[in-house]
Amino acid sequence: MIPAQLAGSSLEMPLARLAAIYERIEIAQERWIGLTPYRCPDGCGRCCAKFEPELTEVEALFLAAWILHNEPALVEENQLDSIKLDSDQEACVLSDPEGKFHCRVYGGRPLICRLFAFSGDKAKDGTARFRPCEHMPHSGDRILDETALLGLYGELPPLMSDFASEADLLMPDCSGKRTPLRLALPGALSKISMLCQFSAFARQKP
Hints:
By secondary structure, this protein is mainly alpha-helical. The protein has one domain (4-119, 167-197). The protein is 45% helix and 5% strand. The strands form 2 sheets. It has a 3-stranded antiparallel β-sheet. It has a two-stranded antiparallel sheet with strand order 1-5. A hairpin with a 5-residue loop joins strand 2 and strand 3. The two termini are 29 Å apart.
């Protein structure tokens, strides 16, 4: 999932723990989807069309590491040149309208992208609630509260705030700080690349 050169670095543990959180999200969502009628329409991708995720530092570093490990051509062939500080496009700069998942980095996508549409949040009283995406079949117009969710499905959806709070503690010095993807990713790519180069140099030393 992430470059082997990061083994033993200060980033190995937080990135591994974030990968574990992402895996738990996937498992929880698969269970939730299996209990409910909610599905994304085929070929939709509208969640990427006018939305740019904001990333914590650990999410940006994970995404950068994922790109360098899994899709290095995006960097080597300058395919990420669309990430400009002055870009005014509404869509996420990594969206891919023609791709299967509408995302050029689907396997490394940040937390909000993983949780969108198949997670709930908490009401003011702390109880769970869920509002289906308006583009989903069976969505209706209402927010389902905890009582309705348990009555309909016997279980609650994974809650966005629970996973977000856990991920936010992986790098405590940056806790609570979020940056738009187009601003966060270039610096994260530079940092991961530098660490990988240092690691390669260290291995070559006699």
